[in-house]
Amino acid sequence: MSSGIAHGVKTLAVLGGGQMGLGIAYVASTRARLPVLIFDKSKEQIERSLALMDRLLSKDVAKGKLEGTEAKEARERITIVDRTKAFRDVDLCVEAVAESLPLKQTLFRSLAEELRPDAILASNTSSISITKIAAATIPQSVSSSSAEGLSSASRVVGIHFFNPVPVMPLVELISGLQTSPETLERARAFATACGKEVTVAKDMPGFVSNALLIPFINEAIMCLEKGIATKEDIDKTLRLGMGHPMGPLTLADFIGLDTCLAIQRTLLEGTGDSKYRPSIFLERMVDAGWLGKKTGKGFYTYDDQGKIVA
Ligand code: 3HC
Questions:
Q1: Residue 104 annotated as part of some ligand binding site
Q2: The 3-hydroxyacyl-CoA dehydrogenase NAD binding domain covers which part of the protein (predicted)?
Q3: How far is the CA of 83 from the centre of ligand 1 (A)?
């Protein structure tokens, strides 16, 4: 376990308290032992996330992964704040809100003003360009190629965790065009302190992970659309034939069909290549509000405990 100092990162802020934000806060608090501030505009979301945090801590204690006192200390390191201005003294902020470029640009513009100039601004984006997000941090009065413009954008980096964050061993780092080597190394040290293995990808649509995973899921949905096999048989083929822990349709429900569609659209728009056309069935599922496990219905139907019932 780390000493709680990851390359100068002594305090963390997490913007967005959904399943990814909560997972990031969890590994930062339990494994890197960092104090973590969390902001989410939804009080209900925060309550759900804190309840999940307590369940995860209790489970780790029951399994002997954490001592009772370690779990108590980890929980005490988490603070919920009611505005991002409270992030002003942190060393690193990881944003984990919905996959929307305008939303992320607005948030990063504010974070760049509110946080210390040497704080790292990271996005947990699944596919959006880090270079575009970084450009939003440059004040409009300043040229993007001036020293001030370069220094503002150089502290923006992608720190891409995988769901469920406490379980998946990887973090994919994404270096935007303006990301400085020092920012990348500090991000690597932070991810390592959280107990993760690291890969580095260039700022291309979907990076490595989602440029491969989401078209694979999209193809599985097209298989269903064309009636090639039932949803159960598509999933079983990949689980038992290829050793995947979850079939692609179960995984799509787990990730969220809105997220899968948003990433697939980013791949299509970012490359202009029609091979990335989203499945029409996927579009319709999202139109219907059937977003997967989180809404209780996607390709499968889920009970209150998140177990598949049909
Ligand atoms: N949060 C925290 N821990 C969880 C969890 C969750 N949501 N779901 C499961 N776990 C833990 C369990 O508590 C258990 O921990 P333990 O070993 O300490 O008991 C462990 O994971 C295994 O869980 P289970 O025995 O209940 O179930 P499985 O063996 O079926 O594993 C799984 C569940 C780990 C989710 C496995 O099915 C899996 O690896 N699925 C693939 C997940 C995947 O591909 N994730 C990446 C998605 S893509 C992404 O995130 C990128 C984004 O940009 C789209």
A1: yes
A2: 12-203
A3: 31
Residue 210 in contact with ligand 1 by CB distance below 6 A: yes
Write down the ipTM of this complex: 0.96
Relative to beta strand 156-161, strand 170-175 is antiparallel
Three-class DSSP category at 165 = coil
45 is in an annotated binding site: no
Active-site positions read 126, 160, 172, 210
Q: What are phi and psi of 200, to 5 degrees?
A: -125, 135
The protein residue whose alpha carbon is closest to atom 15 in ligand 1 is 167
In 16-42, alpha helices (H): 19-30
Residue type, 233: D
Taking the CA of residue 86 as centre, how many other CA atoms within 13 Å lie in the half-sphere pointing to its CB?
A: 14
- Cα 224 from chain centroid? 27
Element (H, E) at 135: helix 130-135
Q: What is the pLDDT along the chain (310 residues), one digit of tens a residue?
A: 444 556 789 999 999 999 899 999 999 999 999 999 999 999 999 999 999 999 999 999 999 999 999 999 999 999 999 999 999 999 999 999 998 999 999 999 999 999 999 999 999 999 999 999 999 998 877 777 777 766 789 999 999 999 999 999 999 999 999 999 999 999 999 999 999 999 999 999 999 999 999 999 999 999 999 999 999 999 999 999 999 999 999 999 999 999 999 999 999 999 999 999 999 999 999 999 999 999 999 999 999 989 999 9
| 167 class by beta-carbon count within 10 Å (0-12 exposed, 13-18 middle, 19+ buried) | exposed
Does ligand 1 lie within 6 Å of residue 167's CB atom?
yes
Q: Is 126 in the pocket of ligand 1 (CB under 6 A)?
A: yes
Which among 30, 163, 167, 249 is the best mutation to test ligand 1's pocket, defined by most ligand atoms within 8 Å of the CB? Answer: 167
